Amino acid sequence: MIEHIDERGAQRKSGNDQPFFAVLSVQPPHNPYMAPEAFRSKHTPGKVELRPNVPPIEGVRSEARNDAGYYAMIENLDWNLGRIRDCLREAGLDFNTHIVFFSDHGDLHGSHGQFHKMSPLEEATCFRAGFFNRHFDSSIPDKKGKNGDPVK
Q: I need a surface site. Which of 2, 6, 35, 49 has the fewest CB within 10 A?
C-alpha cells in the first residue's frame, strides 16, 4: 500500500495524477492473538482491564486477561494506519483522499462468561465504521478542484 501511495504521489507531482482506489484488508485482530514483540510487550495480562460484565470467576477472568495479544494487535493495526496516513501526507495526497475504516470484528473476551464469537451478543458482533476525511476540516482553506469547483 505504501509503495502504491508513493507512486501516486510521484504522479501527482509530475502533473499526471489520476484518481485511485485502494483497499487494504487485514487479518488482525483474530486469534491466535500474536502481535509483533514491540506491541506485545506493552499489553500484558496483568494490565488488561476487563469489561464489567466479565463474571467474578477466576478461570474466566484469567482466560480473558490472557487475550492481551488482542489489544497488542489493535495497537499494531492503529500504528500501521498511521503509517498510511503519514505516507498520504508526505505524497501530498492527504487533502483529496477519503479513508473509510470498517471493522466487523468483536470478541466476547469473557463477557457473560463466554469467549470468541460464541453468541450473538453485542461484544461479539459489533460493527464499527469510521470515515476520515480531510476535506471537511474547517482549518483548511478552500481550494479549486480540477473542474474549477471549490473543494472544502
A: 49
